[in-house]
């Protein structure tokens, strides 16, 4: 039984009910587009008159547009509804070496992308990101941008609006949201990369009906995003899920966080490269993608280095399975290119960790790692608009000039 807090609870109003119904209809359109009003009524359980009122409002607000007209053997021909893809989101995937920018429509389709070397410090990042954001907005003057979503290799504290922990970036605590929002006049949202990938799985992946989900991101570091009872778990200071910095060997190599023997130093991309360097003298500059290619072409030592990485990933999963007992575990990372080889190793370790019942489903993400992070930032921006308690803002009035858009986009931001 769910425990209810009757001290701080507030009575539901008719506005609450309308907001919930609006969210239901809008998300049904998002997931099943194109869809008719009749099908919306059947899928939602709402009366047709209620569905008509809600969809008319969404059309007025320019969240939804008319699509094709259907054909039926008899009766009135239905007009299908779909999301208005003239609304855009600027998605940013910030990583220690490279940062990717992308323009997406609200259906999660990417219209353009650009990659740059990650700036050396937060101040330089704010300046560079602002310039690129402005240019990409001007290049897509047919869109009205809802905001900027940024995936970060660290933990973002929403209360303080600062990134408070990013050891692989080697930056101190920083505020990227404020300077970028001021420079572009667009609302900016930041989220940890693993949490962003959870949102991507729920919004655009295969986990829509999985309330207890773990996403493990394996890259320069190792992050864990947690979906519990259908809610993203952030914890105090946004630090929930930092299993990568739990020591599993007290005398192990030094980690970027300052501790020794963290799970991350055994299971990350950099760990696999270290294993390979320890087994053979190789030229400097070998990348993890190079290591994957070597293993794929039959290099025995490269394969052994990746096997060691996979065993380390599986060993660390024991604490996650025992503590969180998820239904499904999704891995995001370049190493999943060799999932046929490395996946069974990880699945075997996970199966050993289960105390009762069947092990959780274990699979790689459907999307490439960079796509998963970028789609997560798209969902991060949109979830404020597609939630159940949304108040309508002023109507979208079509494309505007680039400078006017940058100045006024904040007025059609978070709802």
- Taking pLDDT < 50 over at least 5 consecutive residues as the criterion, the unreliable ranges are 389-415
- Please bin the fraction of helical residues: 40-55%
Q: How do the strands of the widest beta sheet line up side by side?
A: 5-4-3-6-9
Beta strands, count: 14
**Shape from CA axes?**
globular
What's the average pLDDT?
Answer: 87
CATH class category label of the largest domain:
Alpha Beta
CATH H-level superfamily title of the largest domain: ATPase, nucleotide binding domain
**Strand residues, percent:** 15-25%
Count of DSSP helices? 13
The structural class is: alpha/beta
> Roughly how many Å apart are the termini?
32 Å
For the record, the count of structural domains works out to 3
- Element-by-element helix/strand order: HHHEEEEEHEEEHEHEEEHHHHEHEHH
CATH architecture of the largest domain: 2-Layer Sandwich
Q: Tell me the radius of gyration.
A: 23 Å
CATH topology of the largest domain: Nucleotidyltransferase, domain 5
Largest sheet: 5 strands, mixed
Outline the structure in words.
With 415 residues, the protein is of the alpha/beta class. The protein has 3 domains: 14-83, Winged helix-like DNA-binding domain superfamily/Winged helix DNA-binding domain (Arc Repressor Mutant, subunit A, Orthogonal Bundle), CATH 1.10.10.10; 87-197, Nucleotidyltransferase, domain 5, CATH 3.30.420; 206-365, ATPase, nucleotide binding domain (Nucleotidyltransferase, domain 5, 2-Layer Sandwich), CATH 3.30.420. Helices cover 40% and strands 20% of the residues. It has 13 helices and 14 strands. The protein has helices spanning 14-32, 37-44, 48-60, 122-139, 177-184, 193-204, 263-267, 269-279, 288-296, 300-324, 339-353, 369-386, 402-408; strands at residues 64-69, 79-83, 87-94, 98-105, 110-117, 144-152, 155-157, 162-165, 188-192, 213-218, 222-228, 231-232, 328-333, 361-364. A 5-stranded mixed β-sheet has the order 5-4-3-6-9, with helices on both faces. A 5-stranded mixed β-sheet has the order 12-11-10-13-14, with helices on both faces. Strands 1-2 form a two-stranded antiparallel ribbon. The radius of gyration is 23 Å and the shape is globular. It starts with 13 loop residues before the first helix and ends in a 7-residue tail after the last helix.
